[in-house]
Amino acid sequence: MLKKILRFFPALIWMGVIFYFSSRDTSGVVVASNLRFAFFKSLHLIEYIILGILLFVAFLKYKYAIITGYFYAITDEIHQSFMPHREARLTDSFIDLLGILIGLFLIRCILKKK
After folding, report:
1. Are 40 and 28 a contacting pair, CB within 8 Å?
2. In whole angstroms, how far apart are CA 7 and each of 3, 10, 56, 81, 104?
3. pTM of this prediction?
4. What SS3 class is residue 1?
5. In Å, what is the CA distance from 25 to each residue of 17, 43, 88, 113?
6. Contact present, 51 and 17 (Cβ < 8 Å)
7. Which of 89 and 10 is assigned the larger pLDDT?
8. Do 25 and 84 meet the contact criterion of CB atoms below 8 Å apart?
9. Cα separations (Å) of 32 from 37, 39, 49, 62, 89?
């Protein structure tokens, strides 16, 4: 039982990391405007690829990892809407969902090789 509970800690810690970065002001990040978009969207993908993998490790079910991960992505966007210099975007939650799906695809590929 304790082993099952412990499987959730990495995902919960990573959710805390995402929450922290969602609270930060990004206006001070100086990147050319066309690169800024690509930079921040790639961060969304990477964050949620990792979260998708960690949620699969926690649940051991793809469906639960997708539902929980996307629910967290939506709540993260809502959280950002309350932060100064940040805004919520539905498109960001779709990028997050894509990251979750990529993470789960990577897990599936790894498990098929075993």
Report:
1. no
2. 6, 7, 10, 31, 16
3. 0.91
4. coil
5. 15, 15, 13, 42
6. no
7. 10
8. yes
9. 9, 10, 25, 37, 21
Q: List b or e across 59-68, with b for residues whose CB sees 16 or more CB atoms inside 10 angstroms.
A: beebeebbeb
User: DSSP string of 7-76?
Assistant: TTHHHHHHHHHHHHHHHS--TT----HHHHHHHHHHHHHHHHHHHHHHHHHHHS-HHHHHHHHHHHHHHH
Distance CA 65, CA 101 (A): 9
Kindly write down the DSSP assignment for every residue of 84-112, as one continuous string.
TT----HHHHHHHHHHHHHHHHHHHHHHH
Average pLDDT over residues 2-15: 95
